[in-house]
């Protein structure tokens, strides 16, 4: 299968929200914490700032995610490090099992270098051993759990949350 990574466009907004709903519905079957309904303006802003991404295969969106270069409420003092942060990976069920996170990691390594960033970082809410194992198999180092101190302005699932932190040092061989 041929996979292409590109910026999402405003035409993708409905599909992005469909994939978020599928991911949230799945989370609700497995976990206490799950994604809230995200604000449409947040996604539109990410799209306009070229921070919302997609993997496309055979004319279909296989996966979406967002990036940022700052994440101070979650990463606290580590936010000073040059990093790209990945958020809200949502996979189209038709493409599960295709190692899309691995494809995102390979893309993110190049993206980080192009933007003079040393780290690729991600977080997940809670202590989810399945996701921890999955992300470490994809090349992330699990840095441990962190109880968030200031969640004002973050999506609702971060309120009073403990997060699992993940990192890849792109300069480490």
Overview of the structural elements:
A hairpin with a 2-residue loop joins strand 2 and strand 3 (60-68). The chain has helices at 13-30, 40-48, 72-75, 100-114, 129-137, and strands at residues 4-7, 52-57, 60-68, 83-91, 119-125, 141-147, 162-169. The longest helix is centred in the N-terminal third of the chain and has 18 residues, at 13-30. The protein has a single domain, classed as Gcn5-related N-acetyltransferase (GNAT) (Aminopeptidase), CATH 3.40.630.30. The mean pLDDT is 91. It has 5 helices and 7 strands. Strands 1-2-3-4-5-7-6 form a 7-stranded mixed β-sheet. Helix content is 32%, strand content 29%. The chain is of the alpha+beta class. It comes from Flavobacterium macrobrachii. Residues 3-169 form the N-acetyltransferase domain. Pfam families: Acetyltransf_1. This is GNAT family N-acetyltransferase.
Indicate the proportion of strand residues: 25-35%
Instruction: Please tell me the overall pLDDT.
Output: 91
Q: What is the architecture at the second tier of CATH? A: 3-Layer(aba) Sandwich
Output the CATH topology.
Answer: Aminopeptidase
Name of the CATH homologous superfamily: Gcn5-related N-acetyltransferase (GNAT)
Please give the largest β-sheet. Answer: 7 strands, mixed
Number of domains: 1
How many helices? The count is 5
Can you write the helix and strand succession as a string? EHHEEHEHEHEE
CATH class: Alpha Beta
Low-confidence stretches: none
Helix/strand layout:
Elements: E1 4-7, H1 13-30, H2 40-48, E2 52-57, E3 60-68, H3 72-75, E4 83-91, H4 100-114, E5 119-125, H5 129-137, E6 141-147, E7 162-169
Parallel strand pairs: 4-5
Antiparallel strand pairs: 1-2, 2-3, 3-4, 5-7, 6-7
